[in-house]
Every structure is written in structure tokens, then in C-alpha cells.
Amino acid sequence: MTSASEPRRPRAFALDDPTLVAAPPPPEPEPDPPPAADPGLGAAPAAEDGGYALPSRAEIAQGFRWGQLLVSAALGLATLAAGIWFTRFVSVALARDDLLGWIAWGLAVLMAVAAGVLILRELIGLLRLSRLGGLRHDIARALTEHDLALERRTVDRLAGLLADRPELRWGQDRLKEHAGDVRDPGALMRLAERELIAPLDAAARRLILKSAKRVSMVTAISPMAWIGMLFVLLENLRMLRALAALYGGRPGLFGGLRLARLVVTHIIASGGIALTEDLVGQFLGQDLLRRVSRRLGEGAFNGSLTARVGVATIEVIRPMPFLDAAPVRLRDLVGELFRRRKGETASAGSSHR
Predict the structure, then answer these.
(1) How confident is the model at residue 38 (pLDDT cuts 50, 70, 90)?
(2) Are 309 and 330 spatial neighbours (Cβ–Cβ below 8 Å)?
């Protein structure tokens, strides 16, 4: 016999021995019961890992959105009712044979006449812009080809375009007086620029400075940013139309929008709307942003951009290129605008003292 402390020696068994009995496998643990589902949300969905998955927002908000349908139907019904009411009102008013009917007919005729006049003015403005563009093309061709006959015809067309300007009457007389003495190609064009276009350049310079000053002041004192942006947009559009009318264009609303597209295209083609070296030099040289407040700096910046748009408009709308006259430069306009802004700031500071 072996002692109790002696380890048990290994033994060999046959797999088909009938005396061997296999032990039963251990019982598997029972899974935890799932949590109770909310009766208002239906049965709780089971997650992939056996846990509880929260319902999505789309599952919670299932169904048709009746609130949106109600609002849409109400708006559509109100629009339809307003249209039917206006149509019925006009038809009944025009069908009447009394004083109200005659008043309705008179108002309808006035509305039709006003609409026709507005359409006619827009067409005339577009035709003036097209005629001004054709005149610019012919003047450039006459200067390039040194054609004296074409030059005389284009100068006559230019004088006819500006014939109704009382401030140019003296220049028109001098042009007619000396036009017959000109024999060299290009000399008559320079005479027309000196007598007719140079006064318009001075007026355009004053107009751009006024617009830039207004933009600068409104941007500096505007309580909200969107008010300043809206004023800048409207003032630039007004300046475009005023410059076009100054040089003989006189565009309407759609003509002004077309001119604005041409000006933006010209700005992009000539270097973009970013500040030029002259403008950056004015900012850095005069140290404007350090000397004045942030709002005044923004106003001066927007005024400078307005001046840039004005200079581009002159380059687009001017009937002839700059020959002997000094071109309107952004550097001069911005320098004068900054001098005015600095003078106003200094006077305001002295008055506070």
C-alpha cells in the first residue's frame, strides 16, 4: 500500500473502458432580465452587445408633421385670398359707372403710364451706355490709326453728347473756334480733352471724395454693421450712376447694375479689390490705425475702397483715355481723404479738451 502523502502516479486508461463515467458539465449562469419598456414608446430595442439602446429622435418623432402642413396651407390660402381680392376689387372698380369707377380707371392709366416711362428710361439709359462704349472704341481706334477724318467725326459726336451741359458751353465754343486750325492727328483729340473732359474730371474727383467721405462717416458712427454695409452698397451704386451721368451716360437702375458689373470686372482684371501699394503706404506712412479709434479706422478703410471703385468707374466710363490731362489717381484721393479725417479727428480732440 502507498502512504497518504505519496503522490498519485499516472495511469493509462482506454477510451472505450465501460468503467469510466464522464462528469456532467457545470450549469451556465442565467442572463439578467431586460429592463421594462416604456408603454408610451413601445418595446425597447436591444443593442448588439445585449445592453439597452436609447431610441433615436427619428423614432420618437415618427409620423406626419401636421404643424408644418397647417402653416404652409394657411400661407398659401392667405396669398390666394389676397390675389383674388385684388383681382375682384380691380374688376369691380373698373366695371363701375360712377365716380369710383372713373377714379379706378384714372389710377390704372397712371400706373400704366408710369411703368411705360420707367421702361423707356431704362432702355434709353442702356442705349446711352452702349453709345458711350462705341464712342470710346472709335476714339481709341482714331488715336491708334492716326486717322484725322475719324478723329473729327468722333470729336463731333463727343461734343454732341455733351451739348446739353451748361457748364461746358464755354469749352464747346473754344473747341469750335480752334477745331479748324488743327492739322496734326491727335491734336484735335487733345483739344477736346482739355476743353470738354478735363472739367468733368475735376467734377468727378469732387464727387468721389464726397461719396468716400460719406461712407467713412456713416461706417464710423453706424451702431450696427449691417446698416453700414447697406449704406456702402447704396452709396457706391449712387456714385456709379452719378459718374456715368457726368460723362454723358445717364443710366437707369438696370443700366447702373450693368455698369457696376463692368466696374467690378475691371477692378478684378486690373489687380483685384485688395489694397494697392499706394493705399497700404498711406495706412502705414500716416500710422492712421494707431492714431485713431477702431471705428474711425474702419470708416477710413471703407472710404478708401469707395474711392477705388470711383477711380475704376472713371477708367470704364470716360469717353477717351488720358492724353494730356492728369489721371485721377487713388493715391491722391486717399491722401486727401486721410488728411480730412485726421483734421476732423484733431478738431474733435481739441474740442473735447
Answers:
(1) very low
(2) no
Which pLDDT value is given to residue 22? 61
Question: What whole-number distance in Å separates Cα of residue 278 and Cα of residue 199?
Answer: 25
C-alpha 172, offset from chain centre? 40
Using CA atoms, how far apart are residues 315 and 278, in angstroms rounded to an integer?
Answer: 18
* Secondary structure, 3-state, the chain: CCCCCCCCCCCCCCCCCCCCCCCCCCCCCCCCCCCCCCCCCCCCCECCCCCECCCCHHHHCCCCCHHHHHHHHHHHHHHHHHHHHHHHHHHHHHHCCCHHHHHHHHHHHHHHHHHHHHHHHHHHHHHHHHHHHHHHHHHHHHHHHCCHHHHHHHHHHHHHHCCCCHHHHHHHHHHHHHHCCCCCCCHHHHHHHHHHHHHHHHHHHHHHHHHHHHHHHHHHHCCCHHHHHHHHHHHHHHHHHHHHHHCCCCCCHHHHHHHHHHHHHHHHHCCCCCCCHHHHHHHHHHCHHHHCCHHHHHHHHHHHHHHHHHHHHHHHHCCCCCCCCCCCCHHHHHHHHHHHHHHHHHHHHHHHC
Digit-coded pLDDT (tens) for 192-249: 888 888 899 999 999 999 988 888 888 878 777 788 788 888 888 899 889 988 888 8
Regarding pTM above 0.70, the answer is no
Q: Where are the domains of the chain?
A: 127-352
Handedness of CA 154, 158, 161, 163 (dihedral sign): negative
